[in-house]
Amino acid sequence: MKKLINAAESLVDDALAGMAAAHPALRVRERVVLRAEGPLPGKVGLVSGGGSGHEPLHAGFVGYGMLDAACPGEVFTSPVPDQVMEATRAVDGGAGVLHVVKNYTGDVLNFEMAAELCDDVTVASVLVEDDVAVQDSLYTAGRRGTGATVFVEKIAGALAEEGAPLAEVARVAEETGRRSRSFGIALTSCTTPAAGRPTFDLPAGEVELGIGIHGEPGRTRAPFAPAGELAAVAMDAIHGDLPLEGDLLVMVNGMGGTPLLELYVVFAEVEACARGKGARVARSLVGNYVTSLDMQGFSVTVCRLDDELTRLWDAPVETPALRWGR
Amino acid sequence: MGAGTGAGTGAGGGGGLDAAFFVAWLEEAAGEIARQRDRLTELDAAIGDADHGTNLDRGFSEVLRTLRETPPASPAQALMAAGATLIRRVGGASGPLYGSAFRQMGKTLDGGEAPRPSVTPAELAEAFSAGVVAVERLGKAAAGDKTMIDALAPASRALSHAVRDGLEVREALTRAARAAADGARATVPMTARRGRASYLGERSVGHEDPGAASSALIVTALATAASRTAAG
């Protein structure tokens, strides 16, 4: 294993030290990443968090128009309640705090515990569960939260920045989640620094369909195929769950080890697929936003936009990983 | 690691289980998790995300430190301290689940205003059962879902039966440990329905559940602690 680390045990803290040094607009306190300007009176605070290894999610989305705080856990391990409590109290400007939680047993439990213990702050919570590869919530832990987290954080963050009350911010976050779906495909596994070798073996001629974002294998394997065919698999899976129509916000997301050149190849195919189904890609994002360490592969996330969501997506944002309009 | 609990403590004598016995349990559990760290992580790599051993080892090392820094005066204190530390340090699902189990056990054994220096095997069985219920409730998992519960629930039943039948505590805990180990092995052919392995559906079949495996280690440590402290 060759990784740019000092030691697996210090990886998360070393990286956070780098983030703090690189981005003066952020303040890193222990394992909490905050906006340096502190809590904004009367503004709803947005807190998210999850395991590390998905960068830029979540700390890269802390800043104007998006998150107020992020709580990074160990690699692929949800943060602990203490972190979430500290973040929640630190960003409360008196208007309450929205927790954006990806649907994983660990994330849900730790955020719930923190919310219960923060009884001095009004906390609302939105669960992101957009991964169509998980089909049956009766026999699983439910759909995973993946790419739609970026949309929820951006859109709800924009509304919070306008001064909307907590109930409204929570409503638009829910609405964004309801209108969003994702599907991911891996060409390789990833290597967690603690384990030191790939999480699963994937033969050269095969891909994993329906992966999550923790290097866990997908539901099935399929023969390796050209980008057009793989993009169609992802789009068909999404379309089968939420028919593609009207204006779409589409993210083609790299899993960490895929060149941007290839992601644009995928995006061209995804756009053609959407058009073929009678929908229009009105807004787009291509790049590495919700990664799985060094995994090669991509995910597609689609959100069926309405006027409100489009306006909030277009609103100014200034974070390490997303910035426009300001 | 040495017993370090002094004479006349533990699970021996008149059947009272004191703070030293519970500290010994947590020490044995921490030692076994450290030794089996890589095996747990490998089990997790097959059907999860390859960090179960690393996370539990970090948490239980911290539990040992907490117990050394603030030696507990009662079984309840030992268990509550362990639970709080696991919740604070492990993260993931296993931190809140194991943490809540230990805390619930501690609450069940708490004497309220007067700390109780020791508890009976029947009270241990009752507390263990309450801890398992806490895990079921929090994790929304039932037997057969391929989770920690598949090791913990049979262990709890075996312990309760053995205590009710009047077996001495070492034998009762040995039976609980055997039931936990059997339960963990029985997860191999199961299809996961809760936790991260559930995303794999049928592909989770053929692998032992890492949570059930670590639960079996923790229950086995209970039996080991009983032998160790009784001998001291």
From TrEMBL, chain A:
It comes from the Bacteria. Keywords: Transferase. Residues 7-324 form the DhaK domain. InterPro entries: DhaK_1, DhaK_dom, Dihydroxyacetone_Kinase. Its EC number is 2.7.1.-. One of its GO terms (molecular function) is transferase activity. Pfam families: Dak1 (PF02733). PANTHER family: TRIOKINASE/FMN CYCLASE (PTHR28629), TRIOKINASE_FMN CYCLASE (PTHR28629:SF4). This is Dihydroxyacetone kinase-like protein. It comes from Nonomuraea roseoviolacea subsp. carminata. The lineage of its organism: Bacteria, Bacillati, Actinomycetota, Actinomycetes, Streptosporangiales.
TrEMBL record, chain B:
The keyword Cell membrane does not apply. PROSITE patterns: DHAL. GO terms for molecular function: transferase activity. Keywords: Kinase, Transferase. Residues 20-224 form the DhaL domain. Its EC number is 2.7.1.-. It holds the Pfam family Dak2. It is an enzyme of class 2 (transferase). The keyword Kinase applies. It comes from the Bacteria. NCBIfam families: dha_L_ycgS (TIGR02365). This is Dihydroxyacetone kinase-like protein. It comes from Nonomuraea roseoviolacea subsp. carminata. The lineage of its organism: Bacteria, Bacillati, Actinomycetota, Actinomycetes, Streptosporangiales.
